[in-house]
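residues and backbone:
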Amino acid sequence: MASAQFSISGKITNQSGDVLPGATISLVNPALNTQADVNGNYRLGSVPAGSYTLKATFVGYQTFTKTIILSGNQSVNFTLTSGVFSAEEVVITATRAGHNSPTAFTNLSKKDLEKTNFGQDLPYMLNQTPSVVITSDAGAGIGYTGIRIRGSDASRVNVTINGIPYNDSESQGSYFVDLPDITSSINNIQVQRGVGTSTNGAGAFGGSINIQTTTRRDTGYADINNSVGSYGSVKNTINLGTGLLGGKFSVDGRLSRIKSDGYIDRASSQLKSFFVSGAYYGATSTLRANIFSGYERTYQAWNGIPDYIISDESIPNRRRYNELGLMPDGTYYKDQVDDYLQNHYQLLYDQKLSDKVSFSGALHYTKGKGYYEEFKTDAKVADYGLTPVVIGGTTISKTDLARRRWLDNDFYGVTYALKYLPQDNLNFTLGGAYNRYTGAHFGNIIYTKQSAGIPPNYEYYRDDAEKNDFNIFGRGEWKTGNTIIFADMQYRRIYYSFLGFDRNLNNVQQNTTLNFFNPKVGVTYEFDAQNNIYASFAVGNHEPNRDDYTNSTPASRPKAENLKDFEAGYRTSTGAFKGGINLFYMLYKNQLILTGSLNDVGAQIRNNVKDSYRAGIELDGRVKITKALSWAATATISTNKIKNYGQFLNNYDDDTQAFILLKKTDIAYSPSFIASSEISLSPFKGGEIAFVSKYISRQFLDNTSNTNPAGFASSGVNVFVTDRLLKSYFVSDVRLRYNFSIRSVKNIGLGLLVNNIFSKKYEANGATYPDIEGGQVMNYNYYFPQATRNFLASVSLSF
């Protein structure tokens, strides 16, 4: 019996039940160790009978030890708890909500993302989180995509990567197409809804997406992932890592390529990216350098498809029609593309200064440069600052041409967070950032059919802009008994210089300075470790975007937006069920909305509407029905209204504008009901079958709610507002996964994703441009049809 050899095996998880792949399990005497696999399982073999101490360690978690007496094969599971100091996460936690925070949020782990990552853009990884609507210009999730949270578009959703702002400083949007396959380098994501906690960059008016990229893995690895699918879609990804070298260093890298023809005609994408991260680990500090880059070249599909094309059954492939780049000879301009390269450099430092104080800081620099190129038919040379020329007795006032509109920008700055825990029931965080942006906007004419007096590569406009963004915030949490009191105060100052119209309609360099104070308070009451209720009040302020400034004068320039956000909810987490309910009321003042009116420079820009609001209820939950079967679901019911809304329509009959007054109307692109469902079955070890569904109720393309007006100021015009909407849709996907290992291959993963399995024909996005012609309202609607049934299949190998 003394010479018998046995095995010790088990599973490593955290307190939330998430597995911890890469965790180290060691035996002191004899000295044996191993790492948990992708499913969190480990095994130590050939261990003689006797008494042993087992130790489990994982980055960011407290070391856990167990003493066992081994007399046969034994199963020993570990549940690790978060460490007091978690290197690389101070700045992340500074801008994130904790499990007891009075904020509505959803956390996604690396494992959650890996299940859904077949090469589609990042918004598709977030589709099953509450109150989210995603869209794809190309129709299949590769290329330009969009995301709305509670009806708010990407320009109102704050995005940070390792605490560093990602939103474009001027347009305020987030273009994930510029970071192809970033999902493969993400460790975890938190999606907050509403104003949320203080963060860096643009204020959150609908939500925040807080991304943390790759962190340390203790052992070396090599992962190869390949996907293929409908519409010529291909994804190739290689991930490599050294693991921990000498207990001090690690290097991780990724190289990706994604190609797709797109569901829409000529909506092709050619995407490339890489990610490299090197880190040094001290006893109480971490220094990490990240360099990552994305390149995209996509054929333009951003204008959508006219409704009269979609409804014309005589046109082949009418739902896939793309007219951009059509030339007079009936062929298409092959370089009707968006072409952009973006490089990111981050230096992240975390330091534990004492048992009570920790610090995190980051330096960052982002360089972007690119253009979109387009063919213009019969363009007026006067629109390009040129005087018509006479050639051979003929005046050349129009010509076919191709132009490039460039953006050459630099973004750099510093972020920091200092966390102080004077006692177990009290903590403070002081954080902030200073960021500077410079952007050169300019256009070139690169081709003309006729000379028209245009020299080669003629520059027809230039607009240089700069923006300085400073913020500082302080946050504290105090626990007394079962009650946690939360307070968060942020001051933000913005300086913006731009080329815009002055009061005399001269286009001159101008500047503006904005000061915002964003307070947040909340309270959480814990019934026990698994159940709590919370309530919060938060204020957010949001500056106008680049177009709001450049296409107006100081007299017509819109004001900044203000949001007062009230949230209350209940959360529970038991062995079989985890979920919550959240109530929200978001009261806007001076929300910026397109109304169709023309300002004093003749431009349609967004106008402030005095009173508007969003109110609703969000539910989300996951129940483990059996050991093999689980169901996750979300639902949002909301009302999204503008009070006393005025819509303007251009009347081409008499060159005036008609005015429509609506007492209360729906905010555009704000469905009143959003629901998702994921039923997951694991019929055998390593296997998963998931049935995933999403329902979106109807949405309006403008703010008129498709109703008849209460009144209008245009004599003799019949103003009826109809058919400016996106119909409701219900789509379902099926996802299959199987993971297994053989000998030297740690994991082999096979996956199949069948999107829109019932081949539903639907549009997820659109736009409308109504006017008045012949005494009637004419609706010019454009839609973005999404792909019918299509698939993506993947094979991954982990060594």
Observations:
- The first strand starts at residue 5 and ends at 14.
